[in-house]
Amino acid sequence: MDTTIAIISELISSIALVGVVITLLLESRQLRTSQLQASRVLQAELIRLAMDYPDIASVMGLGISSEGYRKYAFLSLLLDSREMSYSLETMSTRAIQCQARILFNSDYSRTWWVAVREPWNDAATTKNEREFFALIDGEFVAATVHEPGRGPDGESGEPRADSEISALGCPRSGSRLAHLWLRTDAYSRLLPRP
Questions:
Q1: Which residue among 29, 69, 153, 181 is least packed, with the fewest CB closer than 10 Å?
Q2: Long-range contacts, stretch 88-95, CB < 8 angstroms, 24+ apart
Q3: Closest to 79 measured CA to CA, from 59, 99, 63
Q4: Average model confidence (pLDDT) for the chain?
Q5: Using one digit for the tens of pLDDT, what is the confidence trace for 159-168?
Q6: What is the pTM (predicted TM-score) of this model?
Q7: In whole angstroms, what is the distance from residue 117 CA to residue 140 CA?
Q8: Torsion from C-alpha of 23, 26, 27, 32, nearest 10 degrees
Q9: Distance (Å, whole) CA 84 – CA 81
Q10: Between 173 and 56, whose confidence is greater?
């Protein structure tokens, strides 16, 4: 009888210990997410400040005009938000690929990626960040190989055809695309499941 009580007691203690470990792991992930979000909010505020006061952007040494900086900053903020959504697993791999495929249909976006590609690669330290970079860069490479003699080495190629953009089930144009571009969670749910 005493042995049975001891076994039950030890089993209950083990279950409680496992519960504490799981709670600590979840809290650790939540803390990391909060730190990442706080860092991104600060970065976004600094970029918005420079967008509101373009003369501030000139001290950053980017060598681009104030109007060019707004586009540059917007694309950076957009990709930062997508990276965070991917890291938090609120955006699927296919949603990231679709959005990158559409993004790199623009000559300015391809030119921008050439300028920021190396720093993004260098900044990718976690597994999710490296995966995200590989997804974005893969779509960039695919977008730039359509014109002979041009490629991901700095010169942009021709935009892809609509059939290539829709190959992953991506919406191609119109208000539906614009709305879904801004609504990350809806965009992820729109794509067909593999």
A1: 153
A2: 88/33, 90/184, 90/185, 90/188, 91/184, 91/185, 91/187, 91/188, 92/188, 92/191, 93/135, 94/168, 94/169, 94/191, 94/194, 95/184, 95/187, 95/188, 95/191
A3: 99
A4: 75
A5: 455 455 555 5
A6: 0.62
A7: 10
A8: 160
A9: 5
A10: 56
What tokens does 102 get?
């559409």
Flag whether pLDDT at 192 surpasses 80.
no
Residue 76, token pair as written in the block: 């950076």
pLDDT tens digits along 113-135: 998 899 889 989 989 899 999 99
Each domain of the chain, given as residue ranges in start order, spans 1-64, 89-194
Please give the single-letter amino acid code of residue 148. P
**pLDDT for the residue numbered 70:** 79
Over residues 145-171, the mean pLDDT reads: 50
d(CA 92, CA 125): 20
Closest among 127, 129, 156, 131 to 141, alpha carbons compared: 156
Q: Which helix (H) or strand (E) holds 157?
A: none
